[in-house]
Specification:
- This protein is mainly α.
- Helix content is 73%, strand content 3%.
- It is built from 12 helices and 2 strands; from the N terminus they run H-H-H-H-H-E-E-H-H-H-H-H-H-H.
- The protein has a two-stranded antiparallel sheet with strand order 1-2.
- A hairpin with a 2-residue loop joins strand 1 and strand 2.
- The longest helix is centred in the first third of the chain and has 31 residues.
- The radius of gyration is 19 Å and the shape is globular.
- The N and C termini lie far apart (55 Å).
């Protein structure tokens, strides 16, 4: 029972931050049909910028709890910057070209952004543990967990609910669903598709940066974290279904719980178990568990 509880809680914590990153990735693909490899660099930039800013914040003697608002501000600021630089400045020129070319463009952007990270922050690891310790701990039987970790679960649930409400209960959200369903038809009905592309990319980039920003207090922020997270995010969207919000939720839960179970029960297969799950899903459901409905062409 104790092990099952530990697997459940650890899996939910793991799934929460992965969902933040995968949600941005699947939103961009669902709307723009772009497999954005550079999304991993958004996460890395969010983590590095957050770690740097948190260190400055606490060294300057500002109110401790203001550091949480600082992380969100950093994610939003970086999301807007990356949205304008990559979507408006680069990807907008690639629309209409072969999908493989666009993927290569995002991969090249990823490589360049990784070099920019090294240029700015170097190869040293950064630590920003202060916000993590601020919220204290909670006990489940003999298990102790940080309230910061549980807050990440709450953040993921809030974003999932907010995304659902935005898409299904607002006029702008329904227009976005129309763009997702059929871009050409949406444009024919007068929807400014290019504007929705830009806004979606900014939101997706912000979510990727937010995933890195909130994870900075939990991890050692070091070169390579963007590569690791983009692989996991791709696994999530492949398992759940490219472009599906529900797929991102279920995929994150599957990956998070699978990793937690492997760590507790069979640590030596922890790296393998995610790809095993992804392979099984692709064998029986090649387009993922929640296949996005396609418009019927006449």
């Amino acid at each position: 029972m104790l092990t099952a509880t530990a697997i459940l809680i650890d899996g939910l914590i793991e799934a929460s931050y992965l969902f933040l990153v995968a949600l941005g990735l699947t939103l961009i693909f669902g709307v723009m049909k772009i497999l954005n490899v550079a999304h991993g660099s958004f996460y890395a930039f969010g983590a590095y910028a957050s770690a740097t800013a948190i260190g400055w914040w606490f060294a300057s003697g500002f109110p401790d709890y203001g550091s949480f608002a600082l992380m969100f501000a950093i994610a939003i600021g970086l999301g807007i910057i990356f949205g304008l630089l990559l979507e408006v400045g680069l990807l907008k020129r690639m629309y209409g070209k072969d999908e493989v070319i666009i993927v290569l463009v995002t991969f090249a952007s990823f490589l360049m952004l990784e070099d920019v990270i090294i240029w700015i922050w170097g190869g040293n690891a950064y630590f920003a543990f202060e916000p993590y310790s601020l919220l204290g701990d909670i006990q489940f039987g003999t298990l102790f967990y940080s309230n910061y970790d549980l807050a990440l679960i709450g953040l993921a649930v809030a974003l999932a609910a907010g995304t659902w409400l935005l898409l299904n209960r607002t006029a702008k959200g329904r227009l976005l669903l129309a763009v997702i369903h059929d871009t050409e038809m949406a444009a024919a009905f007068g929807i400014n598709v290019k504007r929705y592309f830009t806004v979606t990319f900014i939101i997706g980039a912000t979510l990727g940066c937010l995933g890195g920003a909130v994870m900075a207090p939990k991890i050692s922020v070091a070169p390579g974290i963007g590569v690791e997270v983009i692989v996991l995010a791709f696994a999530i969207v492949v398992i759940g279904g490219m472009g599906s919000i529900w797929g991102a939720i279920i995929g994150a839960l599957v990956v998070g719980l699978a990793r937690a179970a492997a760590v507790h029960l069979l640590p030596e297969v922890e790296l393998f178990v995610i790809y095993a799950v992804m392979t099984l899903v692709l064998i029986f459901r090649p387009e993922g568990l929640f296949m996005r409905q396609k418009a019927r062409k006449i």
